[in-house]
Specification:
By secondary structure, the chain is α+β, with helices and mostly antiparallel strands. β16 and β17 form a beta hairpin. α3 runs parallel beside α5 and α6 runs antiparallel to α8. The protein is globular. The N terminus is likely disordered.
Length: 382
C-alpha cells in the first residue's frame, strides 16, 4: 500500500505503545476468526517452480559472474548492508490462524510454515530512518510471534523475546497488525480487513519495503526477457555504503525517484532537481551529498534494456535494469531499488503478467523472482 512520505512520517508515532489491549467481544468463534478466514489466507500462499528458478539463478551466475560464485559472493558481501537492513519473512499457519516472523529470511518454508510475504527493516537504530524499536516475542502451543512496539525486550505475559528491529519512518509501505486471543496471537498481511474477520486492530507497522514470492502465472514475461537483462548486469557494479550519512541520502534519493520509464538515450538527473530531496537531505544531516547526487538513466544499456542507477559521487549504490517498454508506477521501481541497495546487487525488473504495471511488477534478486505491488495486487488468488 502506498502512503505519502509526510503522512508516513506522521503516523509512524503509532509505534509507541505495547500491544496487550484485549480485543472487543464479538460474535465470532472462540479463536477470533471466521471459518472462511483460513481459506482466504491460504489462498495468498504462492506456489512456484523451485527447480526452474534454480536453473535461472544458475544461468545468472554463469553469464554475469562467469560461473564464479566466489567472485559474486565476495562482491555482494562487500556491497550489501546486510548487518543494517535485513529481510523478515512472515509465515502463516492455521488452526488457529496466526503468523511467525522469521528474522533474516526470504522464505518461511521452515517446520511447516508457509510464506505470506517478506518485509525489510533496520536492525540498528537510525535517528532519521528508523528510530522506533519493535520487539518480536515468541510463544508455543501453538508456536507464534507477537509484536511489542517501543521495546527491545518483551519478556512479559508468557512471551519470550526472540529479537528486535527498528520501524522505518520515511517509507511507502505499511501493514496493519491484528490481534486476537484464545490464544493471544497476531496476524499480518497487507490490505487484510481483519476487523471483518473478528480481529482487533492493534497498530500500523511501517517497513522499508514489502514483497512476496512470484507465482508461475506472473512470470511469463520475466522468463522470456530475463536473459536479455544479464548483459546490462554484467556492466553494473554496486558500491558498498561507507557510512550512515550515505545510507540516508541514497534512501532519500530512492524515495524521491519519479521516473516511470527509461529510454535508451543516456540522461543524468541532478539530485537538486528531485522534488523534496534537498530539503529532506538537510533534515537527515546529509545535505553535503546533494550536489554529488544523481539519477543515471541508461548510462549502461544493451539492446532494448537499460539501467536506472542511484549514484553519489559517481558511485552506484542501487540499480535496476528495465526494458524501454516497461512504464510503471515509480513506487514499484523504488521498492526494487531499495532491494538493490539492501542486497548489494542490481535487480531485474519486468512486467507482471497478472497485473498492469501500475499495480505490480516482477523483481529478480538474490536468486529468485519476487512480486512487488500495491492495492489489488495483495488481494489476488493463486
Amino acid at each position: 500500500m502506498k502512503v505519502p512520505t509526510i503522512i508516513a512520517a506522521l503516523v509512524a508515532v503509532a509505534f509507541t505503545a505495547p500491544v496487550f489491549a484485549a480485543p472487543a467481544t464479538s460474535p465470532f468463534s472462540s479463536n477470533g476468526t471466521l471459518v472462511d478466514d483460513d481459506g482466504f489466507l491460504s489462498s495468498r500462499v504462492v506456489k512456484y517452480n523451485t527447480k526452474e528458478m534454480a536453473a535461472i539463478a544458475a544461468k545468472y551466475e554463469e553469464v554475469v559472474h562467469g560461473g564464479n560464485a566466489l567472485i559474486r559472493s565476495n562482491a555482494v558481501a562487500k556491497a550489501a548492508i546486510s548487518s543494517d537492513i535485513i529481510p523478515f519473512c512472515v509465515g502463516y499457519a492455521a488452526n488457529p490462524s496466526r503468523v511467525r516472523v522469521f528474522r533474516n529470511k526470504l522464505s518461511c518454508a521452515i517446520q511447516g510454515w508457509v510464506t505470506l510475504y517478506v518485509f525489510t527493516a533496520h536492525t540498528k537504530k537510525d535517528d532519521y530512518l528508523a528510530a522506533s524499536p519493535l520487539c518480536v516475542g515468541f510463544a508455543e502451543n501453538p508456536t507464534r510471534s507477537m509484536y511489542f512496539s517501543g521495546k527491545t525486550s518483551c519478556t512479559e505475559g508468557g512471551w519470550t523475546s526472540e529479537y528486535s528491529f527498528y520501524a522505518s519512518t520515511n517509507v511507502h509501505d505499511y501493514v496493519t497488525m491484528w490481534q486476537a486471543y484464545n490464544p493471544h496471537r497476531m496476524l499480518l498481511y497487507p490490505e487484510y480487513k481483519g476487523n471483518q474477520k473478528g480481529w482487533k486492530e492493534a497498530y500500523t507497522q511501517h517497513t522499508r519495503s514489502m514483497f512476496r514470492p512470484a507465482a508461475d502465472n506472473e512470470l511469463k514475461t520475466f522468463k522470456s526477457e530475463y536473459i536479455l537483462h544479464l548483459e546490462v548486469h554484467k556492466k553494473l557494479s554496486i558500491a558498498s555504503i561507507p557510512d550512515a550519512k550515505t545510507l540516508r541520502c541514497v534512501s532519500l534519493m530512492i524515495e524521491h525517484t519519479t521516473h516511470r520509464k527509461i529510454t535508451l538515450t543516456p540522461f543524468s538527473l541532478d539530485g537538486r532537481n528531485l522534488p523534496g530531496y534537498s530539503a529532506d537531505a538537510y533534515d537527515a544531516k546529509c545535505s553535503d551529498l546533494v550536489l554529488k547526487s544523481t539519477i543515471e538513466l541508461s548510462r549502461i544499456s544493451v539492446g532494448g534494456y537499460g539501467a536506472l542507477e542511484v549514484q553519489i559521487n559517481k558511485k552506484t549504490y542501487a540499480a535496476i535494469s528495465l526494458g524501454v517498454a516497461t512504464e510503471a508506477d515509480p513506487y514499484h521501481y523504488r521498492t526494487a531499488l531499495l532491494e538493490s541497495l539492501r542486497s548489494g546487487q542490481p535487480v531485474i525488473v519486468t512486467k507482471n503478467d497478472k497485473f498492469d504495471t501500475n499495480t505490480g511488477l516482477i523483481a529478480y534478486f538474490q536468486g529468485a523472482a519476487y512480486a512487488i505491488g500495491s492495492g489489488d495486487f495483495w488481494n489476488a488468488d493463486f
